[in-house]
Amino acid sequence: MTNELTKPEIDAPEGPAPADLEVVDLVVGDGAEAQPGATVKIHYMGVEFDSGEEFDSSWSRGEPIEFPLPRLIPGWQRGVPGMKVGGRRKLVVPPSLAYGPAGAGHRLSGQTLIFVIDLLGTR
Hints:
Layout: E1 22-27, E2 39-48, E3 54-57, H1 58-61, E4 65-68, H2 74-79, E5 88-93, E6 113-122
Antiparallel strand pairs: 1-5, 2-3, 2-4, 2-6, 5-6
């Protein structure tokens, strides 16, 4: 199966940031399902909830990345399993499941983050 998805556009959210992880399937894939602890190959884009500013994107680098879920932020560890290859999923990740509260030492600490993730492979 070829993945025809292109770089996503993330609309500015309305209202307050959610307190809990939000997981929304934008496209349901029909391939293998990502399991907890899997290594995933993905394309993704991340923006800050408050500003809508992109802070990271594999699309902008022109190639997908592959890594084990246990090395990622908790929001991804909870939000990616169950996703199927070929799918696109949006995660809205509160600070507690991202980079911690403001002042925790990461430039995104205290931020609610929005990610759009395309699952290209899992093992």
